[in-house]
Amino acid sequence: MDINNLIIVSDTHCGCQVGLCPPKVKLDHGGYYGLSAIQQHLWGWWNLFWSDWVPMVTRGEPYAVVANGDVMDHRHHNATTQISQNPAVQKKICSAVWKPIIDNAKGGFYAIRGTESHSGKSSHNEETFFESLGAIPDEGGNFARYDLNIRVGNALCNILHHIGTTGSMHYETTAVMKELTESFTEAARWRDEPFDVVVRSHRHRFSEIRLATANGYAYSVVTPGWQGKTPFVWRLPGGRMARPQFGGILIRQGNEEFFTRNRVWTLPRTKTEIPTVRTK
Questions:
Q1: Best label site of 14, 104, 256, 275, fewest CB within 10 Å?
Q2: C-alpha distances in Å from residue 225, one per residue of 69, 81, 153, 158, 189
């Protein structure tokens, strides 16, 4: 039976103190890690996403799943924000997050390589991890692939992790539009079938561009992530003022045409302080 639903999530950064994490994690020397307030929100939304939103938008039909990179945080950029810098602990966290999702993906599960600072050189962390969880390999036998071309109903989709970023919200959709138009140019150059949907991640912020085409519409989509703001983001232009975004997207073949849907959550602004006279 053809699968008409594809769910795509990315950037769970399991192992980070502001990344996705199950409620109780056993550390290397017998201690336990408990969730921060941000992680409690994330874990609740993650469960709502899969238990409520996905069945609703797929109408209870089977679906395939794509993990679009950076599922683990790893040891990177001299950061001290990891729950544990032991890769074995991070893989346990990642397995607790992803295994139930993969088990329910009746249409199969695909994994995309993320950023080397998180996934390791040549994404060796993600490759061994997703092999152990049974991801569908590419034609070269890689379980974490660089990109994925996949057909969802009438839509030919291209999925990979990276996309250009910007320091200004005024140009947030510039690279999103370029990904789509450059895919058209490359298809015309080599007389390939053009993609109907291109999906990218990496930014942790949802964006979407839709253009009218002979097939109905073409979409360029960037997925939200599952990581709160790290010290690195707090100093970035375009990131330090923005609220973090969490969620995922659906590509679906409907009765008449294919389309995309998204679910995005965010956190409230930090508390507004009211100065008062201090008394002894």
A1: 275
A2: 10, 17, 26, 19, 33
